[in-house]
Amino acid sequence: MTDLSEFFGESSPLKQYLPGFQPRAGQAWMAEAVAEAIADCGKLVVEAGTGTGKTFAYLLPALLSDRKTIISTGTKALQDQLYHRDLPLIGKSIGRPVTTALLKGRANYLCLERLDQVADVAATLVDDLNAVREWRHRTSSGDKAELTEVAEDSRIWPQVTSTVDNCLGQKCPRYSDCYVVKARRAAQEADLVVVNHHLLLADLAMKEEGYVEILPGAEALILDEAHQVPDLAGQFFGVALGSRELERLVDEVRVAVAPYQQPELLRRIDAVQTAVRVLRAEAPRDEGRHQLAEVIDQLREPLDTLRLALGKLNTALAELADSSLELEKLHEQVTAILERLALLASDDAWDGLRWIEINPRSFRINLTPLDVSATLNGLIDNGHQAWIFTSATLAVGEDFSHFGSRMGLADVRGLTFPSPYPVDRNGLVFLPPDLPQPSDPGHTQAVMEAVAPLLKMTAGGVFCLFTSHRALAAASKWCRSHKRHLGGRKLLVQGSAPRDDLLRRFRDAGNAVLLGTGSFWEGVDVRGRALTVVAIDKLPFASPADPLMMARLEYIRREGGNGFTGHQVPQAVLALKQGAGRLLRDETDYGVIVLCDPRITSKSYGRMFLKSFEPMPVTSSIDDVAAFFESHEDEGAVACSCSRSIRPRWPARCRANSTVPGLNSTKSSRGSTPAC
Predict the structure, then answer these.
(1) Given phi > 0 = left and psi -120 to 50 = alpha, else beta, which region is 662?
(2) CA-CA to 486 of 20 to 30 Å: which in 64, 195, 578, 653?
(3) Which residue ranges in the chain fall short of pLDDT 70?
């Protein structure tokens, strides 16, 4: 294998293709660890801070290994970035051809057969349909991400893409032209395949159930943004049924049976549609998650009505199943839905939590396993593949045991690489004094009043993260009532526009105030002075109203563990690291993290949260914050001239986990040995 050191040294061929590339010791060390794990078919967990360069640190050894490799990402956007930007660049640098492939879920590819079947659509969808029809003649991949002029969530896409349920497979008249088939064939032949976690977990779930997997057999699997995997796994190893799926089914059946002109069949379709609407009407009105056991009495009758209506419809479809491939598939689909519905409604099904999620115009009933570690261990621990898990947030302190236990990992090597950026000089943690407890009705107001003085200290943008929509709404109301504090800054609030649009406007403004929650806690990348303050209202503990979290805690208690210290606190620490990680995205970035939860100093577990920010200094003095900004707002300033009281408490060092039983470890310092 080609020596990795030449790619991460001063004479790296990457410099030719990547302007500004600089050798990073942590990146080189991570690459060597990944290469070793691939060669040994081992398992490796790596936490790599912002700026480590983890993407190249796993892509290069994967491409140089001559092993069939699958890279799985947290989002389709990152998937596209890896395939279309990073891999071609690295391919040029290694100087030899490497075959790569991009593989997504079936719903991301145009289905030519379904497109041909589309006749009339709503007037609002005519332009989108025409755009798809024109695009079909120039696309070679059929990947809907190519067609940027049609929104990703356009209602035209379900009509012109397929699902596992409605795909005709080899019986389809357009099978030889199928974009999904072409993508899978390319994946089978490629040395490296880029997928996303949803597709990977769907494949693992099929394998667990004994079905033939859709992903090509690989010798190495690398999971980026691996912190997302445990929660996602619960979805794929569980059972679910939602109103949107049922509504799409009704629409497809109605179109498929139209030529047969059977009034009784149409009445049965209407009955299913009515049953879905009644179930939504009888469901809890409060949005969010509800334990099914608590509302089953009011839902039992509408669930039985839905099941009866689906059964009658399925009987009618069975009589027509031989008439066409489409009707045969629809009959199979309804049969499968009836099986899921019976499992979801039964009190005697396998262990897991039954819960219903209510959204403004839809619902989804779920049966989710409370512990997927044994299932994941059985799929991962086969000894024939290398598994590498990496993210910026996997360890609590230097401890990987929380992630390891949720993934069912044992005897895994764990390494931690802090950010190589000068976070001890360019970052500051501010703990505003005298704030009320998070449960206090006036807490959100106090948070905004604590953040307001910082608006006069920095010319940059301010990002306020909240742990609930209620707090977000209260903060928005406060800002609109106290516009003088904003000093003419643009106010952007989650929900007022699409997420990507809000982030674009935030970057462009350069000094805006953005209020967000939920998805804004991760995946936000704003560099430079456009973001110099990240304020967090509370420690991000899961809501006690979340039935899934409460059920997991009870499960841990029954198993003899402590749900709070063993699950809630580690989960909150990792979530806090994600939120705070929005601040310093580049080596010249600077800024202040404002933590507005007094529990971080008053509770014994607060130290675990503070360790997440090492080696960033911590202060409770607003004067220190003012001094920090004064020193950094000058053009080109990177060093902190703050008072002695906020010098770093902890040394910056490259760390490897050594505290988890069963984990091998390697330590390094800032000496002559590899360090970052």
Answers:
(1) left
(2) 578
(3) 1-2, 208-214, 348-351, 383, 634-676
